[in-house]
Design goal:
Elements lengths: L1 H11 L6 H6 L12 H37 L3 H135 L5 H22 L11 E4 L4 E3 L19 E4 L3
Antiparallel strand pairs: 1-2, 1-3
Helix pairs in contact: 3-4, 4-5
Amino acid sequence: MAIQAQLYSDNLGFPLVSSQDLMENNACGFNQFYFNPQQQQQQQFLQIQQQQQFQILNQKNNHILMNFSTTGHNTNSNQTVLFPQSLACQLEKQRLEIDQFINLQKESLRLALQEQRKQQLTLILRNYETKAQLLLKQKDEEITKAMNKSKELQDFVKRIEIENQTWQSIAKENEAIVLSLNDTIEQLRESACVLSTNGGAVGDAQSCCDVQQMEHNVQASQQLSLETGNEEQQTRKMMCKSCNCRKSCIVFLPCRHLSSCKNCDPFLHSCPVCRIEKKASIEALI
């Protein structure tokens, strides 16, 4: 036994282990890896082969040991010379078988590791693919939201531009109305000045009639009648066209007619002169 252990240690480079240890550890610790059902079946088949091979090796070892023990009691000089040669051949044969078995196990281990690495890479790629799809979906949603927001802003800018143009046109119209009203007010002031001047002339004519000669009375009366008629006509024009009893002081828009007094203005919805619908009214300071 000591010679056999020494030869195994010298030829293989590691101490001998029993077949039971090899079977429990599945020849280099194969039970530490994860296999799918097909790989497990292959592994079981390999284990059966290993058990058969180890049984054969054990039988051979036992046979050699029995021969060695038998020859130990019946030794002679010729058998002592032949025994080392026979033992060396048997050990060399067993060494080759063990090397073949180890190579087979190494190849199986390599294939198992390769398959496991392939499965791990496939799982990692699937995880990254799922995460990439989620990220792409989120980015697509963000792009859609940004496009909708941009469209809303563009519509808002267009509405602001339209409102700006509308207000500019309204401002221009109001400016034109103000200028027209200023002209109308100036005309009304001039008319008021003319009326006041005519009124003073009438008073002077009446006072002069008392001191003038009788021959001028007819001419003065005729002139007074004409001036009074003009004054009445002008006063009639200045009267409210709704009540005809108060002086007109309200200008209707957009027709710009001075045709209503302040009291009648709230009740009128159209101009009394042209019947155009009233949009606004302004009091004229006369």
